Structure formats: C-alpha cells, structure tokens
Amino acid sequence: MNRYKETNIASILGIVGNIVLMLLKGIIGFISNSQAMLADFFNSFGDVFSSLMTFIGNKISSKEADEDHNLGHGKAEYIYAFLISIIMLLTAFTMIKKAITTYFNHDQILFSNSLIIVSIITIITKLLLFLYTNKIYKKYNNILIKANSKDHRNDCFITLCTLISTILGLKGFALADIIVGVLISLWIAHTAIRIFMESYDVLMDKTMSEEKKEEVYKIIEKHKEVIKVNHFNATPVGYRYQISFTIFLDGNLTTFESHEIANQLEREIEKEIPEIYLTVIHVNPVKTKD
After folding, report:
1. Domain range annotation of the chain
2. What is the CATH number of domain 210-286?
3. CA 128 – CA 287 distance, rounded (Å)
4. Burial code of 70-90, b = ≥16 C-beta within 10 A, e = fewer?
5. Structural contact between residues 27 and 40, judged by C-beta atoms closer than 8 angstroms
6. DSSP element (H, E) containing 242
C-alpha cells in the first residue's frame, strides 16, 4: 500500500471518528453548558474539517506531473495543512471567547456522569487514531498526516483535562471547567501556529536543512574528479526537494566523460537521499596543471 492510499485511509478514519465524537460532545456539552466539553466539541468540529482537508489535499498532491504542473502537485499538502492551521486558530479564539463570556455572565454549568463517559470514550478513540496516524507519518513524512496525528494526540490530553475538570466540577469546583476550557484553547492555538509556520516555510520555498545539504556534499566528496562546487540551490516540491548546483571538472576531460560524472552524481544523490525529488547539475570545465 503506497503513501497516498494509506493517507486516504487515515483521513477517512479521522472523518468518521471525529464526526461521532463531535456529535456526542455537542449533545452533552450544550445540555450541561460545560465550557471544557464545549471547547472539546469545537475542537472536534475543527478535527472533522482537518481530516476532510487531509483527504482532499492528499487526493490533489497524489496527481502526477503534467504540462501545467511540471513538478507535480506535492505542495497541495502544505496548502491544505495551512488551511487546517487557520481553522484551528479560529476555533481556539472562539472557545476562549465563549469561556470568558460564560464566566462573566455567571452561566450555570450542569455536571453529570455523562460528561465523564463521553470523555473516556474520546480518550480511547483518539489514542488509537494517534497511534495509527503517527505510524504513517513516521513512515511517509506527510505533513497532512502530521497535522492530523498532532490533533489526535492533543485531543487525548485535552479530553483528559476535560475529564479532570468534570470530576472537580462534581466536587464543587465549577471554575476549573472554565480554566480548562481556556487552557485547551491555548494548546490548540500553539499547535496551529507550529503547523502554520511549517507550511508557510515550504510554500515560501524555504531551502532544505543544513543537515541534508551536508549529506549531498558528502556524496559529492566521494568523487575526486570534482574540483569545486558552487551555486547550490534547493527548492521544495511538496514534501521533497529539487536541487541544482555547479561542479567544476578538469577541462581536459571529454564532454561525454564530464557529463557522465554529473549523471552518476545525480543518480547517487536521488538514490541515497529520498527527500531529493530531482537533481540538476551544471558542469564547468577548468584549466588544470599538466
């Protein structure tokens, strides 16, 4: 099963799981007016959207290169991850506003065992989804799945906080519910900003890390014929990179020999570094001492 099929399965499971949990949290949250549970409900609403964006983004990014998109559609992953981060930020802002309004309006919060049951169901479901999506993310390094995986992981902690606030509410500490609602919102905002920045970097063509550049240079160093390297450029193509650079070779080599060295380098780099999508090498001849 390839990268795109597994991502599709993960997104569909996320959509179904989040819809079920969203309905449960919404019904119980609105009946009880629990700010922690309502915050969890809005978070699940955002999760449904995130899983849907993962499904759509993955479908687009899986398309092969064509005449209009010579380097493929890989950046679709980052465009949709960018949208997910925006929705998460809006969700966090809405939840904070609702919790503060509830506090100043002195709205009554009705705590019940139903809140505890829904919280436990959510924690178990989200833990299973996190373990599954995290495994796929580590396998394929897909930012859409990374965003979903972080969502599922965060939801485990978020709902655990909801569970704790509910238990405290049953003991008479109603303010804990509002505090947890705000803390959940801040956590969501923090995660959203990190995903936002990672997507932004790729969409703005941020170059590859110094560690990856070093891997490329180490491969080049194996070829003693290469006298010098410069004009190194790396452009993100979805989750991978297109790189280009110039190598300086002995001007006494034939055109065929010099280009064969470049071709061999290209093959080695793309084979040894999976993150490299395409390698383009320009050859410059230089005078050498006889």
Report:
1. 3-203, 210-286
2. 3.30.70.1350
3. 63
4. eebbbbbbbbbbbbbbebbbe
5. no
6. strand 240-250
| Cβ 275 vs Cβ 238: under 8 Å | no
Count other Cβ atoms within 10 Å, centred on residue 230: 10
Instruction: Give the pLDDT confidence of 11-43 residue by residue, as tens digits.
Output: 788 788 888 888 888 888 777 777 667 777 777
Per CATH, domain 3-203 is 1.20.1510.10: yes
* Per-residue confidence band for 73, with pLDDT thresholds at 50, 70 and 90: low
124/126 Cα distance (integer angstroms)? 6
The structure tokens listed for 65 are 């290169």
Task: Copy the structure tokens of residue 52.
Answer: 């849907």
> Could you read off the pLDDT of 88-124 as tens digits, one per residue?
788 778 778 777 776 676 655 556 677 788 888 888 9
Distance separating alpha carbons of residues 75 and 10, to the nearest angstrom: 19
What pTM was computed for the model?
A: 0.58
Residues in CB range of 5: below 8 A, 6 or more apart: none
- Residue 25: half-sphere exposure toward Cβ, Cα within 13 Å: 29
Alpha helices in the chain (DSSP H): 3-32, 35-61, 76-105, 113-140, 143-170, 175-203, 210-221, 255-272
Which among 45, 58, 21, 30 has a CA at the least distance from the CA of 143? 58
Of 189, 54, 44, give the one whose Cα is nearest residue 123: 44
> How far is it, in rounded angstroms, from Cα 265 to Cα 43?
48
